[in-house]
Each structure stands twice: as C-alpha cells, then as structure tokens.
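Predict the 3D structure for this chain.
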Amino acid sequence: MPGQNNASFTNGSLMRHVSVMSFTASIGLMAVFAVDLVDIIFISMLGHEALAAAAGYASTIMLFASAINIGLSIAAGALVSKAIGAGEHEDGREYASSVLVFAVLTGVLVPLLALPNIGFLLKLIGARGAVAEQAASYLWIILPTTMVSGMAMVAVAVLRAHGDGRRAMYPSLAGGVVNAALDPILIFMLSMGLQGAAFATVLARFMTLAVALYPAIRRYEAFSIPRLACVKRDILEATRIAVPAVLSTVATPVGAAIVTREMAKHGSDAVAGIAVINRLVPVVFAVVFALSGAIGPIIGQNFGAGLTHRVRETFLGGLKFTAIYVIGAAGLLFIFRGQIAELFNATDATRSLLFLFCGPLALASFFNGAIYVSNASFNNLGHPGYSTWVNWGRNTIGVWPLAIIGSAYWGAPGVLIGQALGGVIFAAIAIWLSLRVIENPQDSVVQPYFRFRQQRMQVLCGRCNR
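Done. Predicted structure below.
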C-alpha cells in the first residue's frame, strides 16, 4: 500500500542498510554476469568461432541501449527515494510513472533508429561478412525488447527506492534462471544456434519485467496512472540525472579498450591475461560494482528527509564497507591465486599478470568502489554531472598516460599498475567532491528541491488533477 515501508532508510543502522542493499544488489548483478558467461560458453560449444565473435559484436551494440536504460533506472531511484524521504509519496509515484513512460519511449525509439542502420553500425565496430550477418540476426531479435529491459530496470530501481532490496534482487535471478534453462533447449535441442540464445534472452527479459513490476505495483502501488502534464513536468528532472548517468556508463568500456590496446603491444599472452582479469573482476567484486545502485536510495531518502548527518554517515559507511569487502576478497584471491591460474590454464605472461592482480593490485579495487559510492552521492544530491566527469576522467586521462608510462618502464605489468594509479587519483577527487557536496548543500542544484517542486506543482497541479 502507499506509504508502507516508506522511508525505511531514515531510521536504523546505516551500516546495516548499506550491507544488506549491497549484498542483495550484487546477487542480482552476479546473476547477470553468470548468464552472460553461460551464453558465451554455449555459443562456443557450437564449434563456430564466427558465432562467438558475432555475439561479441552484438553485445557491443547492445551496451549502448543498456546504458540508456541504466541511466533511466538511476534517475528513477534518485527521484523516487528523495520524494519518499520527504514524505511526498504521491510525487514518488508520479516520478516512477514518468520515468517508466520515458523508458517505453526510448525503448521504442532506439530499435527504430538502430535496426535500419544495423549493418553500418556493425561495420563501424569492425564486423564483416558472415560474422556481421550473424550479429545482425541476433540484434534483430533482441533490440526490439529494449523497452522491456528498460521497464524492468526502472521497476527494480523503484523497489530499491522503497527500501526493498530483497524483492529488487529477485527479477535478475528469475531472468537468469529462465535464460540459463532455455539456452541449451533453444541452442541445441531445437538447433536454433545463435538465434536460440537471442530468443532465450528475450523471454528472460519478459520474466524479469514481470517479477519486478508485480511487487512494485501490488505491494507498494509505486506507479500512478501516467498523465501527459506530469510526464512533461518530470522529464527535465529525469533527463538531468539520466543523461550524465548514461555517459558515465559508456566511459567504462572506453577505459577497458585503452588498456587492451596497450596490452596488445606486449603480445597475445598479455591480452589473454587482461581478458581473464576482466572476466574475474565482475564476479569477485560484484558487491563493489553494485554499490552505486545499492546505496543511492539510502542517500536519496535521507537527503529528501533533510537528514544531512545521515547522508554523510551513509557515504562514509559505504567507503568502510568497500574497504572491508575488498580486503577480504583480495585475501582470498591471493590465497587461491595458483588454483585460479590453473582454472584458466594461464601460463607465462598470462600467469604473471594474473598473479599480479591476485596480489597487491586487487586491493586497488577499493578505489573503484570509492568512485561508485561517490557516483551514488552525486546522482542523489543533485550533481549527476560530477559522475560523468569523474568516470570519463578516470577512464581516459586516468588510464592512458599512466598505462603508457607503466608500459614503458615495466612492460605488461606496468599497464595494470598505471591503470590502478589512475583509480587512486580519481577516487581521491571523487571523495573530495562528495564530501564538499554533502557538507555544503547550498552548492547543490537540488538544495531548492522542495521549493522548486512546490513552485512547479502550483503551476501544473491543475493539469495533473492534484
């Protein structure tokens, strides 16, 4: 019911809230990573390298559609959690509905623009011949469901904004189970190959949406009936958060591409090493990856309630939680580094890079976590643009020059060391900016949030029947 379990983060232990939300969010995130890995394994089992390559190219195109949906989900979480914290439950429902409508519109627009130009887009990223044809067929099946994926992400963000981390975890798990179960049936038993993997993903997206929307509507009545005037009113606030979030999301693969390019100068073993590390990191540090989405609602609710001291405590608690988790995970990586290398059949340079990462460099994941925690504060305290600048800075000037210098002095290991040093620098900048915003709310563009909202309501409430 409306108001049930609302503003649950404005009371109780903040460290407990941070821990519970982070772990539940990471479980859903790990399910997504696991399904992606299973997809590639099954496709590779077909014995055609072109199919695996086609899936890789298609994933690159899909990344940009996913980035839009992630940005919208961040906007939904920030706006709804602030409204709930302020006790404006009807505003929260209207925000949720407006962003959901926006997700539908962009989810329709993206395929309409991309699919007629899919050949050009695939050629742009290097796909040719039969590989490009297979990738195109894959995308023609999946891209039309961009809207479904976007709606699911928004619904999950709204559940987190209401403080329900447990139910926000279930959609990804349900989608992962459906995808993993259907993959072998469609790919092998029905001999659908790559297209079978695409259809499995489509059906999994519908399951994810159903499991996300049901509790949001049934338990929280989190959405109101969309009205054009309300959507027009809220769209500016949503895009002000969503656009920087989209740009921030796109920055990560740019940084990965720079590192891979530098590694390529040291041979295929070095590239294989970074490829293994890139697959290992999301699994081991899924909790760290989930931090931004997990603690955002906690910051948003307390900011909306005017509890600045709890906002600061949440931010510092997020950093402490990150430190504790990274130290524990890095310790396990160090202990089992030999077994991990054997699992991936790592030898020579690949093994050396893996040992370096499983040793001291794994601790550098703390600084990535600090950036994620800072992103949550920026997005929920009215400075989403800071997230964009920090993420792009970290993944460009925080990677390229340091990776080049490290490569020149220490070879392939120097690339990883340079990348880690960039994280240290930009984490320090992000933490400083976050504390500045928290301690000086008058500098925040959202400080006049309530007055701004009230003024707009006075102008528009007649059209919204409020």
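Residues 148 and 205 are 6 Å apart (CA to CA).
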